[in-house]
Specification:
The chain is mainly alpha-helical and 365 residues long. The chain is 46% helix and 7% strand. It has 15 helices and six strands. It has a three-stranded antiparallel beta sheet, with helices on one face. A three-stranded antiparallel beta sheet has the order 4-5-6, with no helix packed on it. Helix 13 (315-326) packs antiparallel against helix 14 (331-338) and helix 14 (331-338) packs across helix 15 (343-350). The longest helix is centred in the middle third of the chain and has 20 residues, at 132-151. The N and C termini lie far apart (103 Å). Residues 1-29 are annotated as: Disordered.
């Protein structure tokens, strides 16, 4: 059906611009919604011209040919996902984090023309949207995407590589003390108390804690494969003897009333199906962190701290290592449980709990 002919007084109005009582409004060509353009005819026409150029597909043959040749950043992301990402053989947790970042970049930049992505444009995007470690991770992924695109002939330059490479920030989080641990514990649900005790005794990372099953307990030993250090061979395959303390924690877990295969489990408010979960009672690492933070923030002394300084569930691992050393266990014993390839890394965790004695040296000589 042909568009209705405009009246003589409105014949000079741009397409989709309408006048009523001296007031102009623009009709969105895709949604049909009207948007006010004010009462200045000249300004309303100028705005409508710009909107039409952006919102109405061009039928110009030349522009169609040029547009077909242009590569969108979303094209690079799509091919990276299908052609390159699977070859990296990332661990499940690392793959999940990489996918999350790819989703963010796809959401923000998929419609950007690669040839128009300058160093300034990428630098502004990073500065305006990310900080600290998030900046470092996203910048690294952007740089890898452009390198991949270059190997496929989709781009000629790597603007991300020329942006500012920031150093990792100093850790701001306060170490988790035993007093704070006990205070948080008092506010935790029963399943979270099991998780906290399990973490404190075994010194495992949250992903390995959440993956541990009752079937992993065989012949009086808990068998764990540490995902992060699996590439280091035997050091990542732990056969932990179940002592009295650990046995008591596992017994409490079994008495939850939930028939779950996982040592750390809970009854959620709503049971949802998820590809990342094999049982409805399973606790994901993100959920463990979130629920620990909720209990933590009920402790007034901790809640007064800036969020960046409040200890996370990961700090239980460092506290446990410190308590083992205080109890007289060797550095090598703690290193083995933590799955570190070097003692230096173990000390990086445990040295944060050293308490310095304040004294003076005022001898006059």
């Amino acid at each position: 059906m042909a568009a209705r002919r405009r009246s003589d007084k409105n014949r000079d109005l741009e397409p989709n611009l309408h006048e009523s009582g001296g007031y102009y409004k623009y009709r969105h060509p895709q949604t049909g919604k009207y948007h006010g353009m004010g009462s200045d005819r000249k300004k309303a026409n100028a705005a409508a011209r710009k909107l039409n150029a952006l919102l109405i597909p061009s039928n110009d043959l030349v522009s169609r040919v040029v547009t077909e040749q242009r590569v969108l950043f979303g094209d690079i992301i799509k091919r990276y996902r299908t052609e390159y990402l699977p070859t990296k053989k990332l661990k499940p947790r690392t793959l999940e984090e990489t996918t999350y970042r790819l989703n963010r970049l796809e959401r923000d930049l998929k419609d950007k023309q690669v040839e128009a992505m300058s160093i300034k444009m990428v630098a502004d995007y990073l500065d305006e949207n990310f900080q600290n470690n998030a900046y470092i991770k996203i910048r690294g992924l952007l740089s890898e995407l452009f390198r991949f695109g270059a190997t496929k002939g989709l781009c000629d330059t790597n603007p991300a590589e020329n942006t500012l490479a920031k150093a990792a920030d100093e850790k701001q989080r306060r170490p988790l003390t035993k007093e704070w641990f006990n205070a948080i514990y008092a506010h935790a649900d029963d399943w979270l108390k099991v998780a906290m005790d399990f973490a404190l005794i075994t010194l495992q990372r949250r992903s390995d804690l959440c993956s541990a099953k009752f079937d992993d307990i065989r012949e009086g030993h808990l068998h764990l494969i540490q995902r992060k250090t699996e590439k280091h061979g035997h050091r990542a395959h732990l056969r932990i003897k179940v002592g009295a303390s650990l046995e008591a924690v596992i017994k409490r877990s079994r008495q939850s009333g939930i028939a779950s295969p996982y040592i750390i489990h809970r009854r959620p408010e709503r049971i949802r199906r998820s590809k990342s979960m094999t049982h409805w009672s399973q606790v994901r690492p993100e959920t463990l962190s979130k629920e620990f933070a909720k209990a933590r923030d009920k402790v007034p002394e901790i809640a007064r701290l800036p969020v960046a300084q409040r200890p996370t569930v990961h700090e239980i691992r460092a506290l446990g290592g410190h308590l083992y050393l205080e109890a007289g266990f060797s550095d090598e014993y703690v290193q083995t449980l933590m799955g570190h390839s070097t003692l230096k890394m173990t000390h990086h965790y445990t040295d944060r709990h050293i308490e310095w004695t304040v004294c003076s040296a005022n001898l006059t000589i």
